[in-house]
User: Fold these one by one.
Assistant:
Number 1:
Amino acid sequence: MTYILVNKNKEGREASLRETLNKVFNRELKEDEIKTCPDIHILDIEEKNSIGIEDIKDFLIEMRYKPFQEGIQAGIIKEAQKLTQQAQNALLKTLEETTKYSVYILPVDNEKNLLATIRSRGRVIYSQNKNYEPEEKLDIQNILENDLYNKFLVAEKYSADKDSSLKLISNFEEYFKKKLELDIKNGNIGSSRTFAETLKNLQKSRDKIIANCNRRLVLESIMLQLNA
């Protein structure tokens, strides 16, 4: 079984992870127990911007054997949005053939940062932030109204790391989805097709970021398309 825990907030993902582990092991796990239990395997690479295929191969070696202490073992890939496309493809076969005593948990900021084939093989769980401040939304309208020079400055700023780049793309997607829904509701077929095409291009850009293409060039390309 694979669980995909979706929450934009890192603390929210951690809370959802603890809740899911408690359900998987059918008891309340203490914080130190999560870190020391021989049947909980965690891939957590905070210092890197991406999780590569070699990281996944090493992680899957830990999951080859049957549980040592519990009736089930859990494999956790924290910050799953950092998985490269190659790493996700390497993980896919394992998720397709998950044994009855193995569970995989993928906390992620946005399920679209995972390949559709990964999402189709897991149970997607959306959690709400309770005691955390909501993430500040970008003023997309203001960005779109800027000239190309200032748009490129935005691209430069958000290309600093993968998470920032994906955050910018997610905000663009949310903005144009609302535009598309409104146009469909009002019967504006022409512009709705334009918005639908824009969303397709944004998804392609997201895939390029996940595949570790040059982030700045990808974001600048988006700005050029939106400036046309």
Number 2:
Amino acid sequence: MNPTPHIRTRGGEDRGELRYPPLPQPLTSGVYDNHTHLEIADGDEALDYREQLDRASSVGVKGVVQVGTDLATSRWSAQIAAIEPRVLAAVALHPNEAPELDARGLLDEHLAGINELAALPRVRAVGETGLDFFRTGEDGRAAQQRSFEEHIRIAKEHDLALQIHDRDAHQEVVDTLLRVGAPERTVFHCFSGDVDLAEICIEHGWYMSLSGTVTFKNAHNLRRVLDIAPRSLLMIETDAPYLTPTPYRGRPNAPYLIPYTLRAIAEYLDLDPVMLATQLSSNTEAVYGRWDADPIRSQTGPNDKTKSTS
């Protein structure tokens, strides 16, 4: 149940900067990290997922959504969620996985595996899925598109949230969601768009999940998004071990560092951090359900969020 983490190293950097940052001041109102990768270890400390969760709990992070990026990590995510009450799972094939799997004739088989995992009760999202044209050229885009559309179908079939990975493909992602129909609960993970994309999300009720990037000095577009986004459509995440917030940018990220991002957002919006944390927690539970309860299942229509009692 606790497989060896995937170790990521960064050659050429000061090894001292690969230590995890210190614990922040605890939040007085808890919040969730709605997108993290506990199976990946970074830097000089290969922290066990349980230690990661204990650190998070100690500073007011109530729970996490552990996100798979291929069939193996999606299975791991579902297994951990089944035994750890602070974890819910999201399962998917990352868009960059699709072209390689397709070339090997394995894409359909792996999509079928994701569909099986999506039926498990503590799997609450399909993700991260979407389109990524940063690393994938024209020859791989058809496989990405097919994989994305199948993930959307799986999410709707199982009445799960959808976590979008969108890199250099904003318009294509939006076009796909509008053409095939977005799931009722759709989240743009690590939102990287501008005001124009934010306005589209607002129009369709899609959630915008902000990561540590919103704290970066050059993240002017993201802060302009905060100026117009309804608080009811905002979420927060780490995408750990990546995208560590200021003042520890460049060092390994972890769910326990969420308070830095939350306080930076609250300061920019001139909001009480307690009020912001309460709103973000409410939003997160509206998307994934409560960590200690049955999953959200629509009963009578696309806007009915009554939880199943079965």
Number 3:
Amino acid sequence: MNPFLQQAPIPGVKNIIAVGSGKGGVGKSTVAVNLAMALYKKGLKVGILDADIYGPSVPRLLGAASAKPDVGEDQKIQPVLRYGLKTMSLGYLVEEGTAAVWRGPMLFKAMDQFFRDVKWGELDYLIVDLPPGTGDVVLTLAQKVPVTGAIVVCTPQNVALADAKKAMDMFERTNVRVLGVVENMAYLAGENGARVQLFPKGDLDAYLDVKKIKKLAQIAFFPEVGMSGEAGVPILESHSGDELAEVFVGLAQRLTELI
């Protein structure tokens, strides 16, 4: 049986956008949260699903680490509302610091509950923050719901590109359209417009050119990003109108144009 025949839309959700990466530590969750915020600032209805079962970080990035979702009379889970975003994460359901020691079947069930038992309501976009790698969660996403497209987050060096290639190959194999790549921590903005390379400049641009994949955004390393994440305030809130916020505004604009 074709596993993709199991796909069923989430009622009320128009577009599902997966944000993935081949490896951890590239800023995937930060990109997912601030992309969601930028879409919301455009007047769209947006939700974000933290599908990183083993290392959920969306609650902390949104200043909601201690939040607990309510369950309605219809036994549907109410998303936690933060900065206008409807959010759901395993981080809301287990104590912070508690490991989710789960195998495949438990992951499948958890993901299905996030799709079917959460009262998402009407959404223009549901951003799904995936765990790093190419494992069960990503396969479950592709099998259970029709994904509009995927964004892959990568840093400049070849060690990150090698894993990003695997992520893009995985999306292609599961019939998920790769919308493009976000190059994060591309450089450090120095004085007088100087650009300091934090990582060795790899072959990302050449690879994307050969594969005809768009680079949707190039994001510099800003210490403010880390500080905003620690404070639980998205960049679109803490630095609205600044250059850094405008990068995410541009990313949201390019995404909506592609869709």
Number 4:
Amino acid sequence: MRTTALLLVDLQNGTCGPPQAERRADFHRRFLAHTLPAARRALELSRAAGLEVIHTVIANLTADGRDRSLDYKRSGLGFAPGSWDAGVIDALAPLPDEIVLPKSSSSPFNSTCLDYVLRNIGIQDLVVAGILTDQCIDHTVKDAADRGYRVTCLTDACQAETAERHAAALACFRGYARQCTVAEFAAGLGRPAPRPERPAP
């Protein structure tokens, strides 16, 4: 476990926080019902197993975002450094000693020191979850694999704008990573999945 890290990608206020309930109602509903519980379970499992936990958030280095990648500039994506939008959502809030890396491109390997940090810590296996499956997750998984990391994508702890785009992305990078659910991840750690709550009579 000392060579394994959980990487949570862009699970922040500006992408999946409360304001999204009005801007992207269906996306936010699916996030709260499925993706967030899976990501929380993955985080709990990783902390309990002693895995390194690293968060990335979309955040500019400059107030006007001039440092962003071209795709972020074209899409108008970016959040001011230190802003509320750039913070990890409360449900997945980092512990004091967990690493948070601001990024200004789809892949954290391109705009952060993630690779340097992982190698310094001795990480060989990277478990990835977050949003969006067909954008930042896709780039992160492929870049990690190209750098020699053994990658696992937690399929139910990732989300795209639509279920169809999510499925297409998983099919696209299937050769770059092992794909499993959080329940399967738990079983691999030797921890059973929690029993579903019974409805009140």
